[in-house]
Write a structure and sequence with these properties.
Layout (H helix, E strand, L loop, with lengths): L9 H37 L6 H4 L3 H11 L3 H8 L44 E3 L5 E3 L3 H13 L4 E5 L4 H17 L4 H9 L15 E6 L13 H9 L5 E5 L4 H4 L4 E7 L2 H10 L3 H8 L2
Antiparallel strand pairs: 1-2, 3-4, 4-6, 5-6
Bound molecules: zinc ion.
Zinc ion binds next to β4.
Amino acid sequence: MKKKTSKYNGTQKFILFCFFTIALASLALTVFLLSKAFVVTRDAEEGTVPTTLTEVLPSAEDIKDKITAVVPKPEEAAPELSAEPEPAPEPEEAADPHVLKKQPDEWNLMLVNQWNPIDRNYEIDLIELNNGHSIDRRAYPDLQDMMDDARAEGLKPILCSSYRSNQKQRDLFANQVNKYLAAGLTEEEAELEAAKWVAIPGTSEHHTGLAVDIVALDYQLLDEGQQNTPEQQWLRENSYKYGYILRYPPDKSDLTGINFETWHYRYVGKEAAQEIHEKGICLEEYLAEYMN
Ligand SMILES: [Zn+2]
């Protein structure tokens, strides 16, 4: 029997085998890669798979947001880090309604009381009267007219106090305090009580030269009886016509700071005096209206 022989020898068979194997592997790899590319493209069209590098990596903005979310912003960290924290604004003090923000421009309306002491540099042109008293020269003519008219009606008013220096006021105040000390009050109580009757130096209206104390010649005591004299009754009704007001009425002590003094008259000028008299108000009330 004739053995059928192959037309390829052993070496040629090996080379052919290798060729087909490599070709088959290449084909398989190609098919695989093509199929992967197809899937990626399809998904990209549906928008579910990022197609660019910038979509895969976080953007600079994203990173910044994440950092600032963790690290406090400078202004938030300031209270702890700042060496000198801003001082808190001080709460405004409630203004004392007794204290004038500003004195009126008119000399005759100047307010002096325990809350509004006289300006240390205030200069007065005084006129000395025959009886030794002194008052502001500008308030003198009307005072003289008032006294003359009262006397013309048979009354006998006399001045018992007028311009007073600061030193004179200090002496008066000390005398009053001593009276209360002698009566057994403590020093603090005595000063408080004295201030109701004698102005603390610097706060007396007599420093202005615009205030006068007037009493009846026949009754010169500075007490409650004084208000019943015909001289006081006439002054209460007529003084405003001459520009003078009853400065410390009985029902205004909380505003004036001084108890009722029927003898104390103050020059404010005829216009203001008339309004104050007609309205039954005190100088403090008049100025509160006038200055607003
Ligand atoms: Zn007085």
